[in-house]
Amino acid sequence: MRNLCLDAVAVCVATLAMWGCGKEQPAPGASGKATSNSAQKVAEEKVASYTYPAPVKGHYKEINVGEFDVVDGIAYPASGGAGTVVYVTDKAIASPMIAESACPMTQARAVSKLRDAKYLEVTLVHGVSKYFAAGTAFGGSSREEEVGGHYWSSRMKADPDRAIGSVVYKGVGNFDFDLPLSKPKVNEVSEGGLSQDGSSNVTAPTPTEQAVTAAYRAVHDAALKKNLKGLLAALGFEATQVAAIRGLDGIDADLMVYSDRFLTPGVPGEFNAIAGIGTVRGEGMNSKGKKFASYYHFATCGDHLVLVGIGENPM
């Protein structure tokens, strides 16, 4: 028996801004200087490519979520010590840089949203998972419970420092993983937990409206400016993490799509908060002139608030 829970969320496509050209003639001798300054600026802004061997390999195909390969992910002890959460994605999320962070799942979720990544997830207890979750950052998702059908099987090597194993879902997909076992300093919430009961980190403080609004403004402004460096800093990533994420293949194209999920004027409005999560409402138009009232969900991660979800509502 399969128990599916589906969400339908509109997907926005970003458009490129048009740049005009001035007609003023440069002063004598200014052309060479301008060219030199331009070349220097390009050199300063050039970002080194960030690559690493794929720690995950697999394929998945399901009518509600789609078809994709998985290439990256993280693994960490489930809250309360009940097993190991293995979360894998179809795009690189700079896992070597976030695996040792205080909030690896929170940061993985933030990068997954930025990249509009698809994911698979299980929580393994003695190599067995009672659920199988799959989904997209802004589209459909599913969470299936093991109720006797034995649709999937899994195994994981006993290792205190690494999560090494495989998951096979009959007729749907499979993946192998070899990931460092992260050691979060907070109680991280899995995708399976979110889709089941909307869980949050109940041990975390409840964010204040002032803090959430400030975090929203910083992310909103950087996203609209398509300033990836500023956006990642506003999300609480450290400098080395920022450099790595900016070097991921295809990240600039992902930013163009992501930025369109932020609205103009997008003034922060309605606010709600529970332990570990704060939500603010923003209303306005995207770059296509379509009006939305969207909700931006921020999770606590130490001293930072990290944007981990966007609920888009067309008006």
Short description:
The protein is α+β, with helices and mostly antiparallel strands. Helices cover 25% and strands 33% of the residues.
List keywords for this structure.
315 residues, disordered N terminus, alpha+beta, six-stranded antiparallel sheet, 8 helices, single chain, five-stranded antiparallel sheet
Question: How would you characterize this protein structure?
Answer:
- The chain has helices spanning 30-45, 95-98, 104-115, 191-197, 209-224, 228-234, 239-246, 251-259, and strands at 56-62, 66-70, 72-77, 84-89, 118-125, 128-129, 131-136, 141-145, 152-156, 162-169, 173-180, 264-274, 277-285, 291-301, 304-311.
- It is α+β, with helices and mostly antiparallel strands and 315 residues long.
- Strands 3, 4, 5, 6, 7 and 8 form a six-stranded antiparallel sheet that branches.
- Strand 1 and strand 2 form a beta hairpin.
- Helix 6 (228-234) packs across helix 7.
- It is globular and about 50 Å long.
- It starts with 29 loop residues before the first helix and ends with a strand.
Specify the helix fraction band: 25-40%
Structural classification: alpha+beta
Which value, in Å, is the CA radius of gyration?
21 Å
**Kindly, what is the distance between the CA atoms of the first and last residues, rounded to a whole number of angstroms?**
37 Å
- Report mean pLDDT, rounded to a whole number: 87
Count of separate DSSP helical elements: 8
The H-and-E topology, N to C, reads as: HEEEEHHEEEEEEEHHHHHEEEE
The strand count comes to 15
